[in-house]
Structure formats: structure tokens, C-alpha cells
Amino acid sequence: IEIQDHGSPEDRIVNVEIVKIARELNIKIIATNDSHYISCNDVEAHDALLCINTNKLIEEDKRMRYSGTEYLKSADEMAQLFRDHLDDETIKDAIDTTLEVANKVKSYDIMGESRIPNYPIPPEHTADTFVEEISWKGLLERLKARSRNEITAVYKERLEYELKMIQQMGFSTYFLVVWDYMKYARDNQIPVGPGRGSAAGSLVAYVLKITNIDPVHHGLLFERFLNPERKSMPDIDSDFCIERRDDMIKYVTEKYGEERVAQIITFNRMTSKAVLKDVARVLGIPYKKADEMAKLIPVSRGKPEKLKVMISDATPAQEFKDNYENTICINEETGTKVPVRQWIDMAIRIEGTNKTFGVHAAGVVISSDPLDEIVPLQKNNEGAVITQYYMEDLEALGLLKMDFLGLKNLTTLQKTVDYIKQTQNLIVDPEMLPSDIERRAQETFGRIKKLPDDVDKTYRLLERGDLEGIFQLESSGMLDVVKKLKPSCLDDISSILALYRPGPLDAGLIPQFIDCKHGKTVEYDHPLLEPILKETYGTLCFQEQI
Predict the structure, then answer these.
(1) DSSP output for 231-253
(2) Whether the Cβ atoms of residue 366 and residue 260 lie closer than 8 Å to each other
(3) What pTM was computed for the model?
(4) Distance CA 63, CA 494 (A)
(5) Tell me, what's the pLDDT at 140?
(6) Which of 220, 126, 117 is nearest to 178 (CA)?
(7) Which of 214, 274, 311, 393 would be 389's cystine partner, CB 3.0–4.6 Å?
(8) Which tens digit of pLDDT belongs to each residue from 306-361?
């Protein structure tokens, strides 16, 4: 039977009576404490967070608040709590029981054990032999060969190497799961992307029609996707028509069981500018002052927690630090003085904490065991089951995370193909159509046109900046880059997409790439680099090059 003391007079009355009941009924007493934060130093910051979430001011009397004792206490602190109303022997018994319960928790390891769902394999096969069989069959189809003898050595050796690595690392079942749902998409006319990310470097993924990019032809490395040094699960991102994404989730849910499939939670964290304004509001600091201070924080990609830097000796904005050290604000409601130092210190304590949750745009987890035995679950606002752990923690548990991304561009492409068929009786690019059966059926009553690889008109369109609706090129920042680049081939576009990321942007690689494309002399640090970097004008764009 539990005793607690969070500083209220009622606790002292209740604890004495509880001890009497426990002694009379011969029940053990246990000392516990609510813990809403870890340290006693977090009392004020937690109170501010509470005010932010309940839309109250710290100085308001009638609002939800805690006593300030709800943190993780040591045994000595717990013993001191009860001294004024319980005897030493009772306190010792209560704390000994707390330790007794703690010692009953057996050590266990929830990390790492692979929980890939069980794919139904034909009885004459293992996962390894089945992946091998369908991969060789797929390679013959891709290369339009009748037997393995007709396949060139480079493809044979690459496929053998990849299959060996996949089997060695225990990922054959993983490939079967992905192959199965991608096959379902193609067989059911659900538009699918050609593949993205490191999975495009896998020949096995290409021959299983998981991707539609030949990695041998394009010089893509399998090791970027999978190698013995990589401890994490492989990651195949799949793009589907945004209108049919739910059909894909429904398919895997029905195949593996609704208790084994869930979408993944995301957390929206309190960023430096937002937390600065939120804490200012609950302290009653004028909005104008909060806005001024927030504008002094520079944009720095990939560094969410910045307030500590802003008050350090290395601050990029001395004005911010001067305000921190010397300025006092006046609470608009009460007229009390609030030092900027107090405001910023409080904001630093809660910067980066979770504010709200959502559902990951693509992430779906599929497990071999019922998920509620492995991870806590909840329902989102729409009633869909989602995990309460975020993506990285799920991977650490050995759970299989699939990315089912709904892409409006695929929907637009498919509708375009459909409209051309309706209005022109012309089938554009058979490769884009979802299945061989569909293609053969339509070949009988429609002319087929393969899209050419390079069309000069297309590049002139890009050069003019007509990028609305063009995948990954339509942002305002990219618009400026593409107009300056004047791309003349697909490689230019893929290179600039690779460079339009935080690291290369901060390093100034895009201007260098554009200048060298338009005639500036390319300088190589060593002759051995020339064959590697020639196609990207001397600039390191891709991990394969590195």
C-alpha cells in the first residue's frame, strides 16, 4: 500500500491513516513519488511548459500547477519527506519495499532481435532459395535473355555477389516482403515510382521490379545500400500514387494481420524561435520584444537547438548576448520586471522537447509478432493505429520499417497517360504502365510510343524556370539554381538534386558546379580523381564518388 508526500497537508493526514490500515491488515508499505521531470532544477521550466500547453500566464493564480516536488528523488530525499509525520522504522520499511520491487525487475534486452514478418514461402523453398530463383528469372526478363548463358559476366557476378550478401546478412525475407507488395501494386494498376535512395544501387531490387533503374548501367554501388559493416536494417523507400497509398497499407495489413501492422508516430519539437516566443508569452513579455529576439537567431540547417550557442562566446549575434546579459523587460499585465536572462534560461531548459505528435508521412511498421507485445500503440485523431515510439527506436527494436510514400506527381503522371490514351488512342511508354497483362491488352487497340531519353524542348522549359509541378525542382530555392545551371542532360538534374542539401549548400558547392559547367577550368587535386569527378565537373556530388 502506497504512501506519497508532494507537500500538501492532506498527504500528511492520509499517510498516517494508511500506515494504520497497513499495520492492521499486515500489508507492506511502499514509498513512491510522482516524477514529471528528472531534476529539481526543472521546476520552473516545467511550470512554463504547463502554461504554454494550457494557454495561461505564469503569474495567474487560478490555473493548473504542480507543487514543484514531482521529480525523481534519491533515497535520502525520500526519507526526509516523511520525517515530520512518520517514524523512522516505518519510513525505512517503506523505502526497503520500493527497492524490493525494483529488484524484482529482471534484466532483459529488447534491442536488435530481428522481427521481419514471416512471408509465406513455397514448401520446396527456403527464403534464400526462393529469392535466388525469382531473382535469376527477373534478370532474364530484364535483359530479354532466354538462358543464363546469354547474360554478360558483369550482370552474373553482380547478382551472385548481391544474393550472397543478402543471404549472409539474413535479409532474404525482407526482399520477399517488398517484392510481394510492389508486385501487388503493379498488378493492381497502382502507379509506383522508379525507386529512390540507396536501394536503386541494388541489382536484386531491379530484377525483382522493386526499382526500375539498372544500377550496372548507371554505375550505382550496392554497398551504399547493404554491406557487412552496416548494422541497421536495409531501407527501401517506395513511392505510390497518393490516391492509392491507403490501398497499399490495407494490403499489407490484410496479408500480415492488423495486429502486426501500424503507422509510425512523429513528434513536433519546440524549436528555438518558437520556444522563445512561447516562454515570452507566459512570462508576459511584450510580443514585439520576443519577435525582435527571435529574428536575431540565424537560420542554420540541421541544428535545432541553438539558444545555448546564442549566449555563448561563439555567438553569431552579439546583440542577442548583450540583451541576455543586460536587459530587463516589463510584464505587460502586472508591470513586474523580468530579466531577459531568466526568460532565455527557461527557454533553453525546454528547447527541443516534444510539443505535439503526428503520423509519419511514409513510415509503416510490419512485424512478425503482434505489435502490442513489443511497442506501445495508440490511435491518432483519424482512428488509425500508430506506434508511440518514433522511427529510430523502432529500428533499434529490430522492427521492419517500410516507407510507403504517397506522391502526387505519380498520380499526375498516371492521369496524363490515361488522358493521352483516351484522347489520342496512344499509349505513352509501356514501362510506365503497371503490369504486363494490362500492357498486352492495350497493345491490341492502341499505338505505343516510348518516351525519348533527351528532348531539347524539355531542357529549355527548365531553363525558363517553368518548374511548377516538377518533382523536387519546384521550390523557390531550386528555381533560382536551375535557371542559373541551364541543365542540358538528366545527369545535370540528378547532380543538382544531390547538391541541394544542407552540407553541400553550406560548403558552396552549387556555385562551383554551375561555374565549371559553364566553362570555368576544372582543377583536380590529383589525376586519379579525374575519371571519378569528370561527369560532375570536378565536384563531389554522390556517395559513390566519395
Answers:
(1) -SPP--EEEEETTTHHHHHHHHH
(2) yes
(3) 0.78
(4) 55
(5) 95
(6) 117
(7) 393
(8) 888 888 887 777 889 899 999 898 887 788 888 999 999 999 999 988 888 999 98
Rounded Cα distance, 332 and 231, in Å: 55
- Residue 414 pLDDT > 80: yes
Say whether pLDDT at 231 is over 80: no
- In the predicted model, is pLDDT for residue 433 greater than 50? no
- Provide the grid cell at 442: 492495350
Closest listed residue to residue 412, CA positions, set 542, 530, 285, 242: 242
What is the Cα gyration radius of the chain? 31
- The C-alpha cell at 154 is 558483369
Q: For the CA atoms of 314, 319, 322, 323, what is the dihedral angle to 10 degrees?
A: -130
Residue pair 480/524 in contact by the 8 Å Cβ criterion: no
Contacts of 443 (CB under 8 A, 6+ apart): 427, 430
Please give the Cα distance from 400 to 366 (Å, whole number).
6
- The DSSP string of 400-427 is EEEEEEEEHHHHHHHHHHHHHHHHH-EE
pLDDT tops 70 at residue 394:
yes
Is the per-residue pLDDT at 304 higher than 70?
no
Backbone angles phi, psi at 362, to 5 degrees: -125, -30
pLDDT band, residue 434 (cuts 50/70/90): very low
CA distance 227 to 383: 39
* Cβ neighbours of residue 395 closer than 8 Å, sequence gap 6 or more: 232, 233, 401
**All cell numbers assigned to 498:** 544531390
What nine digits make up the cell of 540? 563531389
Return the closest-CA partner of residue 277 out of 357, 355, 336, 358.
355
